[in-house]
Prior knowledge:
Elements: E1 8-10, H1 12-17, E2 18-28, H2 32-39, E3 43-44, E4 49-53, E5 56-60, E6 63-64, E7 81-84, H3 87-98, E8 102-111, E9 117-126, H4 129-150
Amino acid sequence: MHRASSILIKNRRATFDYELLERYIAGIQLYGTEIKSIREGKAGLSDAYGIMLQGELWIKNMHIAEYAFGNFANHDVRRDRKLLLTKRELAKITRATKETGFTIIPVKLFINDRGLAKLEIAIARGKKSYDKRQSLREKEDKRQMDRMMKH
């Protein structure tokens, strides 16, 4: 039995740029060198997004660094990777993304207690610039309230 891993790679821009509506946990189809790089914490989600192709969900532009001890069989760092979800979840995501303004955004990448890489994705709606300003204002107000409570 594996112990829960400390690997947690977050997409910090996701909550700032998007309003996250529904979340799903998906498995990822990976090569051996990719899982080794993820276990070293060498992956990034900042420019990644999901796309539905022929009834399957793919993650595009997710960066997984080349494995340092890899050989000629090392992976392409930004290749498209298939996400593994149930048919029911895929159908829900397909319906949601058909509506205009909705997209699939990776929120965090982690290793579960069985040692498998999992990706938390969300169906999201892009925020307008005034929504972002509102988010920043709320964050600043909360920070000031916390300061007031400490003094």
